[in-house]
Design a protein that fits this description.
Length: 363
């Protein structure tokens, strides 16, 4: 690098710095070998009577002189998918694109875009234009059927299949993937089935991986997704829920005892006994007492320690199958609430021989 100084008078100096090398680039440009048109215009979507969709657009501005030399690339995807996974179609000499409903997922929001370049057959060349503005549309709902079933082979030993089902039904319907390696082979079930939610969509993706052996270029698998019949062994005698008790009441006897009585619903077998639970509390108070009663038939006598004098009580009662004979089940529903009021001075109970175990738990 060298420099040159130009002096003008005594108060101003200009310095020029120059490279010894020549720094420049030259190119001969052949116009029709370096074409990049503007993006296609007015992309829109039309729903056809058949249920299919038609994408239409106009050729880019300034491309009229190119005649039918333009080629278009149309890509489309669901709204939440990335463009890297979008489907792509190459079209020549047309500004229409027909999309069959069979190739679209029901109940989905789609978006499409298009770009243009000179086709190779034209003898010209260049690169794609920028993408057009996007156009979007909705596909009709497809009911509760599994949708978007597809499979991808890794080229070696794995076939990965996935499908989508509505979130509302996966809690009550179990779907399975069934396959045949050949038309003559027995049907097998793929396991395990994995699941993940779709973003911003009322669907979940379920998938299962099939192990492939002895694959060839002519190998063909038959796969099917369907609701499974779920079976469960239920032993009736271990799942008995008796009906709620009726006519539950507390009365005071001549001997000043407070007697609890009820009417139970029989189960058809006299040897199946029942046990009971009483929940009672002072009126307008939250603290409750729970009594477990083991004797099968009424009455049950409240002891002196269980009740306070001159107090109004509220209570409810429920029943359950007794367990010594292996008969089991949940508690019945609670009976209707009932009330009673103790008199001044709680009775002194008479001493009698106990005929069953009775106990109380306070909380």
């Amino acid at each position: 690098m060298h420099w040159v100084c130009h002096i003008h008078g005594y108060d101003q100096e200009n310095y020029n710095f120059k490279f010894d090398l020549t720094l420049q680039a030259d190119l001969n440009v052949y116009l029709f070998q370096n074409v990049q048109t503007l993006p296609p215009q007015n992309l829109s979507v039309i729903l056809m009577r058949s249920g299919d969709f038609l994408l239409t657009w106009k050729a880019p501005d300034g491309s009229q002189g190119l005649g039918n030399a333009l080629q278009y690339e149309v890509t489309y995807k669901r709204q939440w998918e990335s463009w890297e996974k979008a489907a792509s179609l190459l079209l020549s000499n047309t500004t229409l694109c027909h999309l069959s409903r069979d190739n679209l997922v029901p109940g989905s929001s789609y978006v499409a875009r298009v770009r243009a370049r000179l086709g190779r057959a034209s003898g010209f060349s260049g690169q794609y234009s920028e993408w057009s503005t996007e156009a979007s549309w909705e596909t009709p709902e497809g009911g509760l059927q599994p949708r978007n079933l597809h499979c991808l082979f890794n080229g070696a030993d794995r076939l990965m299949c996935s499908w989508e089902v509505k979130k509302e039904i996966i809690t009550s319907v179990l779907f399975g993937l069934f396959f045949r390696a050949t038309l003559a082979s027995a049907e097998e079930e793929c396991s395990p089935v994995h699941e993940r939610a779709l973003p911003h969509a009322p669907y979940v993706v379920q998938s299962c991986e099939i192990s492939v052996s002895n694959s060839s270029s002519r190998s063909q698998y038959r796969v099917s997704v369907r609701a499974k019949t779920e079976e469960k062994l239920i032993e009736a005698y271990k799942n008995i829920k008796v009906l709620p008790l009726a006519n539950v009441s507390v009365t005071v006897t001549e001997s000043q005892e407070y007697e609890l009585r009820w009417t139970k619903h029989t189960l058809g077998y006299n040897f199946i006994k029942q046990r009971y639970q009483v929940e009672y509390w002072k009126n307008n108070q939250y603290k409750k007492t729970v009594l477990n009663i083991s004797n099968d038939e009424p009455p049950f006598i409240f002891t002196q320690q269980m009740l306070a004098s001159s107090t109004e009580y509220r209570a409810k009662m429920r029943a359950r199958v007794n367990t010594p004979l292996d008969y089991e089940g949940p508690w019945s529903e609670w009976s209707e609430e009932f009330t009673w009021k103790t008199e001044n001075g709680i009775y002194q109970p008479t001493v009698s021989q106990p005929d069953g175990l009775q106990w109380a738990k306070h909380f």
